[in-house]
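Hi C.,

You asked whether I'd gotten around to modeling the 508-residue construct. I have! Everything is below, sequence then structure, no commentary in between.
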Amino acid sequence: MSDPVYINKSRRFPHPLYEKFVLKPAYQEARKYYYEPMMAANFAHAVMLYRCDVISLENAQALLAALQQVEDRGIDQVVYRSGVEDLFFAIEGQLIKIAGGAFGGNLQLARSRNDLGYALTRLALRSLILETFEELWSFRDSMQRFAVEHLETLMPGYTHTQPAQPTTMAHYIAGMLSLLERDSERLRFAHETNNQSPLGAAALTGTGFPIDRALSARLLGFDSVQLSSYASIGASDNLTDVANALSSLGVNLSRFTHDMLFWATQESGAIRIDDSFIQISSIMPQKRNPVVLEHLRARISRMMALASGIVIQCHNIPFGDTQDIEDPINPLLFGSLESATEILQLYGAVIDALQVNVAHLRGRAIAGFTTVTELADTLVRQCKLPFREAHGIVSVLVSYSMEKELAPADLSAGLLREIAKGEFDLDIDLSEAMLQRALDPGAFVEARSLPGGAAPKATAKVLEQQGLGIEQDGQWLAAARGKIAAAQAFLRSEIDDILATSAGLKQN
């Protein structure tokens, strides 16, 4: 048989549809998120190559001057051109044109688009992680200040969506702050995973040139070098750690939003959303729609969907360089973090302007016999009854009261004695004062004074600790940004030093 004959149907790169659906969108994403990181990485690489004697002073100066010229022209000059595959080649083409082929092309010594691309993702991601962390830090601060204002604000606590026991607004918010504090820890962990330099891994196996990976990392503000060259271009845990942090944040904010929407109903009457966040009905004059909470709920869902997409896109690919976790994942990755910052900014503004119906909530704190747990406990303490017997007496008392449509204020020590004797053949001696104190929501809360309890003093201690945590996270954020600023200053000083160095006078 003769060999098969293939008909060449090849067209010039790129195919119009490949350009429309892949190259152009990816280029625009890269311009938005990668331009500044790419310029910084290029400057740093040129400095490192010179300091390691990989390129000459003349070559380094030509590269740095060309990079400076490209940077001075600005991002608007780096436009998409058909046939130029991506932002990397667009900038490299300008450098070669300015510095000449002999010098301009040497910027790609000892590196690949692989380790460069992953470095750019980590740099762009670092900025967004820190922005999200700052907004979460600010939101926690708003929540903590709100809680301090409502240490004495009684309200019903719910289990299984039903009124359970009296608590305070501060106790509820302190619980939510505990979750948000851990979400901040997850973002810090994501930052630490992400802020490792892959530069020097080149395509996969490293490079034969005597480069200094630690210097590249230092010039760009990375905390460390990702030691394995294979992991440097194949790892995706810095992406999924972000997704995990945002998924947890989304779950916690969603549950809070669920409660907020209930509290804002007329039936609950617990809170009043500020007028600046309220929309009216087109036909119903009485409507006061707290739509800001609905928009927040929708944005939280969007953030969680994008975060889930990150994990899904990473889960079934080979361990190595692959397009799946490069350009196509960026809308999910960067979009989820940008959604998070919007959500946290908006939520902080809602909390700062939130009004609480304190008197109404106090009345609701006892409705539904929410204090009778303390009545059972009082029977144990004062009348020396076993808890199960005390529980049974109080249970019958509540059932009787609901059947007769009695409110908690209608209960009396005499009625309690009658039920204990008639239903259980027990004689109990509980004064009217003790019964009324047991049913008082304020006294109920005050009795819960163990660490973490609902008593204002106990909650105040929790909030104090949470305030210290917020302060410490603020210090960490300032230190993280300070380190990046110091790296930028170091890189700038290295650039200026090399450009000012005379031939034959290498400075270190």
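If it helps when you're writing up: The first helix runs from residue 16 to 33.

Thanks,
B.
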